[in-house]
């Protein structure tokens, strides 16, 4: 069986917590990241400890291994930093005594370098299209321009060093002492990553697994369907997940979709957002992961727009038509219930079940993890 978790907005909907809940109840789970990469920030709370997952699946603290598919970028330095934090939880969280982080990285995953991050910062200063600032979009652009660096390349010293030099030429920068030091530090991180038993650059066996596909960002940021250029450089629908299901000969008909939305609308950074100037009174949001950040910009909130929610589900239905669908509504504890929504030009107060009905779709379940 497979479950695909998708953000039905502009990201930050609660996908990580949803994945963690599904993992807890699933037999023999494997979390699969199928879009985006290390720029994701998925918050999970376990035993009162809050962790933001970026380079590992959100089921890691619940004993689920992660498969990082070829549709996702990897930044070795960030991966090592997060691995150290995760391994440190053994002494402070209630975990399986045999707990160990397991990460499978597809050999064809694009690799981000420090130089992609610097180029990302320079590009954003002149274009203001919206970015997290960790080199994701720049990595994708470089790969599309055939200046490649794959996960499998990290296993071969000569290939790695030559490709790093070609990346320097790609960006047209002089080989300064600063560049040489960054290159040396990056190679050290790669060498350290290769020594980790928890990390394998290999494709796992998915048969007999409950595959939980963890989406990144939201459908409204999809590179093909969002408001270009204020989009992410990936497909945030279920498109890539179904390609993996086909590639591994998994049962597509035994797949359920989980569309995740907050009880209010959010967007981090620039770009169009309906209901932007509406005010919504929030509470219990002291631990909000999203804050104003140098490159992402301001975290914006407003009343939930049912029309955009319907658009997101309809967009994904092009890939998931006929399959069971679920609606997950998070953060209901942060606003009043019924909560305000807009549909067309009218404003309503809606319960979670009324919201589901307003979309025009039939859901197997409407899940409200924060209560309502």
Radius of gyration over all CA atoms, rounded:
20 Å
Shape designation: globular
Q: Give me the CATH superfamily of the largest domain.
A: Adenylosuccinate Synthetase, subunit A, domain 1
Q: Average the pLDDT over all residues and give the rounded result.
A: 90
| CATH topological fold name of the largest domain | Adenylosuccinate Synthetase, Chain A, domain 1
Distance between the termini: 29 Å
The total domain count is 2
Continuous helix count: 9
Helix and strand element order: EHEEEEHEHHHHEEHEEEEHEEEHE
Profile the largest sheet. Answer: 9 strands, parallel
Helical content class = 25-40%
Poorly predicted spans? none
Helix/strand structural class: alpha/beta
CATH architectural label of the largest domain = 3-Layer(aba) Sandwich
Give me the side-by-side strand order of the main sheet. 7-6-5-2-8-1-9-13-16
Overall number of strands: 16
Query: Strand-residue fraction?
Result: 15-25%
What is the CATH first-level class name of the largest domain? Alpha Beta
């Amino acid at each position: 069986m497979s479950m695909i978790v998708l953000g039905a907005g502009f990201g930050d909907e609660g996908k990580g917590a949803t994945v963690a809940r599904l993992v807890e109840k699933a037999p023999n789970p494997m979390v699969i990241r199928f879009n985006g990469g290390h720029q994701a920030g998925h918050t999970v709370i376990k035993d009162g400890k809050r962790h933001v997952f970026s380079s590992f699946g959100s089921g890691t603290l619940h004993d689920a291994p992660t498969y990082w598919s070829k549709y996702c970028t990897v930044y070795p330095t960030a991966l090592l930093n997060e691995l150290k934090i995760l391994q440190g939880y053994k002494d402070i969280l209630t975990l399986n005594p045999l707990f160990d982080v397991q990460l499978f990285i597809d050999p064809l995953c694009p690799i981000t370098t420090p130089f992609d991050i610097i180029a990302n910062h320079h590009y954003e200063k002149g274009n203001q299209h919206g970015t997290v600032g960790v080199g994701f979009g720049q990595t994708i652009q470089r790969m599309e321009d055939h200046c490649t660096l794959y996960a499998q390349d990290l296993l071969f010293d000569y290939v790695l060093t030559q490709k790093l030099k070609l990346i320097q030429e790609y960006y047209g920068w002089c080989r300064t002492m600063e560049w040489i030091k960054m290159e040396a530090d990056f190679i050290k991180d790669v060498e350290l990553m290769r020594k980790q038993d928890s990390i394998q650059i290999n494709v796992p066996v998915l048969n007999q697994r409950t595959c939980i596909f963890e989406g990144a960002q939201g459908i409204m940021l999809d590179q093909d369907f969002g408001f270009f250029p204020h989009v992410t450089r990936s497909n945030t629908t279920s498109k890539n997940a179904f390609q993996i299901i086909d590639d591994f000969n998994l049962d597509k008909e035994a797949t359920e979709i989980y569309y995740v939305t907050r009880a209010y609308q959010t967007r981090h950074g620039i770009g169009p957002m309906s209901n932007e100037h509406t005010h919504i009174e929030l509470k219990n949001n002291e631990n909000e992961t999203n804050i104003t950040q140098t490159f992402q910009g301001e975290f914006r909130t407003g009343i939930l727009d049912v029309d955009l929610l319907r658009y997101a589900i309809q967009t994904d239905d092009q890939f998931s038509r006929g399959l069971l669908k679920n609606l997950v509504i998070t953060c209901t504890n942060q606003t009043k219930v019924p909560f305000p929504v807009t549909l067309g030009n009218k404003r309503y107060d809606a319960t979670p079940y009324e919201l589901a009905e307003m979309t025009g779709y039939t859901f197997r379940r409407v899940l409200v993890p924060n209560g309502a």
